[in-house]
Every structure is written in C-alpha cells, then in structure tokens.
Amino acid sequence: QVQVVESGGGLVQPGGSLRLSCATSGFFFGSYTMKWHRQAPGKERELVASISATDKTNYGDSVKDRFIISRDNEKSMAYLQMNNLKPDDTAVYYCNAYLWSLDSDYWGQGTQVTVSS
Q: What DSSP letter does each residue of 71-90 carry, written as one string?
C-alpha cells in the first residue's frame, strides 16, 4: 500500500523558518522524482520545488534562494526547508512522488503552512 504523508506545517511569523517532511512507503522511493507543490486559497496549485532520482533540483521563481528541497533515499523521505517565509507562502503544501516511465503519480494529503504576524 502506497503512503505519502506530509508533516511539519504550522503557523510561523514572517521571516521565520519551517521544515516540511514527507514520509513515504509502498514504492521504490529511490527511482522517483519528489516534488513539493502548494495551493493557496483561491489560487491554482503551483510547483514549489522538485528533486530528481539523481538529486537534480529545480525551484519555482518565488522560492528560489529561500527554500531547499532534499531527500533521504535510505529513509524514503523528502524534505522542504523553508527560510525567510513570507505571508505569500501561506498555502497547503503537498508532497508528490512521480515516475515518468510508469506514469506513476502519488500524492499526500497536504500540510497547512500559515505565515502571519
């Protein structure tokens, strides 16, 4: 059974930091590209960051130089370190595992991040 579970969200003041974690099981984690997406109220879902099976990373323009995506293949975990958070970062953050060769796409339920003073 495939599981993708996010944790680490919460309320933080502007300028603060949070680290999101994504725990997975039920598939061969090391082969998958791991992605973090977010969706704010009234807005479309956007891709925040991705990390390939070979550790190549990509970031959305709005989070470059502030967020860092990483993975631990031994633990089947992905992480998103978020620094210098801004109110515009407020959203539900989703972890996503994708393998293009199998068109295999797994999603978590999301974790809420709220940036407010």
A: EETTTTEEEEEE-S--GGG-
Lookup: tokens for 115: 């940036």
Count CB atoms within 10 A of the CB of residue 48. Answer: 23
The answer to whether the beta carbons of residues 20 and 10 sit under 8 Å apart is: no
3 state DSSP class of 54:
coil
pLDDT at 117 over 90: yes
At 26, which amino acid appears? G
CB-CB contact of 34 with 9 (8 Å): no
pLDDT over 90 at 102, yes or no: no
Burial class of 66 by CB neighbour count within 10 A (0 to 12, 13 to 18, 19+): middle
Q: Are 36 and 80 in contact (CB under 8 A)?
A: yes
State the residue for tokens 């984690």.
Answer: 29
pLDDT at 103: 87
Q: Is 5 in contact with 19 (CB distance < 8 Å)? A: no
Tell me the residue length of the chain. Answer: 117
